[in-house]
């Protein structure tokens, strides 16, 4: 049978359908909008962020010129600006009740601020200021009690009412870049040091518990809010490692896809996924049990 191969006569030919499907997929990708808006207003680089524990629409950010801004995500505008520190804002965290928040900076101070804006005529003053001996590089608040932890040369546990730490925890001599309280077993802390360690502490025993050493430095870690013993570490070797703190010999999962150092990680409230930010200018969302991002 002579056959005419002119594609106009075969409109449902497989290759043509394939091309159509491919173009449709590409267009869907082009018009997909994960990006919603940008919050503009900082005069310098944004160094740290914190979420409000009770209000989904409130986010705090701290910049390299010591400025802290509170944002409303629904209106996408800045509610309030505080000149909090001299030099960098190194870390910030909100109190579990959401009425106040803490910042640490290069001026060796820890400051507690009210979440509400001051009344007319009131000065923008911190509730408390603690002058420390060294520069603090990170801070995190206990999930149930009036206790917070700072890190620098060591991990210090502070009572909100006192100006000196309740206890100091250290294992070796090295600068610690971040410290995080466990949201479920609230007396556990994890910290990342620049000598490639991840160290776990117990507040009740006031001693370090366990330590895992990786090949390269871990920038920060985040606890799974649903499984008390699982945490994910963002590493310099382009990967994220999910560990079970009961078996630290090897990670439960290695998450690969970034092509540069991973700088930050945070879990979704369901504990099923986490988001990571990297030096390769990309943000990726990983399922906890998969090795590649979705």
Could you outline the blueprint of secondary structure elements for this entry?
Elements (H helix, E strand, L loop, with lengths): L13 H18 L14 E6 L6 E6 L3 E6 L4 E7 L5 E6 L5 E6 L3 E6 L13 E4 L6 E4 L5 E5 L3 E5 L7 E3 L6 E6 L6 E6 L3 E6 L4 E7 L4 E6 L6 E6 L4 E5 L8 E3 L6 E6 L5 E6 L4 E5 L7
Antiparallel strand pairs: 1-2, 2-3, 3-4, 5-6, 6-7, 7-8, 9-10, 10-11, 11-12, 13-14, 14-15, 15-16, 17-18, 18-19, 19-20, 21-22, 22-23
GO biological process, one term: maturation of SSU-rRNA from tricistronic rRNA transcript (SSU-rRNA, 5.8S rRNA, LSU-rRNA)
Protein name: DCA13 factor
Organism: Todus mexicanus
3D structure, described in words:
The N and C termini lie far apart (49 Å). This protein has 294 residues and is mainly β. It contains 1 helix and 23 strands. The relative contact order is 0.07. The longest helix has 18 residues, at 14-31.
């Amino acid at each position: 049978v002579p056959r005419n191969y002119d594609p106009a006569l075969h409109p449902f030919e497989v290759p043509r359908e394939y091309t159509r499907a491919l173009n449709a997929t590409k267009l869907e990708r082009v018009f997909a909008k994960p990006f919603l808006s940008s919050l503009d207003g900082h005069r310098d680089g944004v160094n740290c962020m914190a979420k409000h524990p009770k209000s989904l629409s409130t986010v705090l950010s701290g910049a390299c010129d010591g400025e802290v801004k509170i944002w409303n995500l629904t209106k996408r505008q800045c509610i309030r600006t505080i000149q909090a520190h001299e030099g960098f804002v190194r870390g910030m965290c909100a109190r579990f009740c959401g009425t106040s928040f803490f910042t640490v900076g290069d001026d060796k101070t820890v400051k507690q601020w009210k979440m509400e804006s001051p009344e007319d005529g009131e000065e923008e003053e911190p509730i408390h200021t603690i002058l420390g001996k060294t520069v603090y590089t990170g801070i995190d608040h206990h999930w149930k009690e009036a206790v917070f932890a700072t890190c620098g040369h060591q991990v210090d546990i502070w009572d909100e009412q006192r100006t000196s730490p309740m206890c100091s925890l250290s294992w070796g001599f090295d600068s610690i870049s971040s410290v995080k309280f466990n949201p479920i077993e609230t007396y556990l802390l994890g910290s990342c040091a620049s000598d490639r360690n991840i160290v776990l502490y117990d507040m009740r025993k006031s001693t370090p518990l366990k330590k895992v050493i990786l090949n390269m430095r871990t920038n920060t870690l985040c606890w799974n809010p649903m499984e008390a013993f699982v945490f994910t570490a963002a590493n310099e070797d382009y990967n994220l490692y999910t560990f079970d703190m009961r078996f630290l010999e090897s990670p439960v999962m290695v998450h690969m896809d970034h092509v540069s150092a991973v700088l930050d990680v945070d879990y979704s409230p369901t504990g099923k996924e986490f988001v990571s930010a990297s030096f390769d200018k990309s943000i990726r969302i990983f399922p906890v049990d998969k090795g590649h991002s979705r």
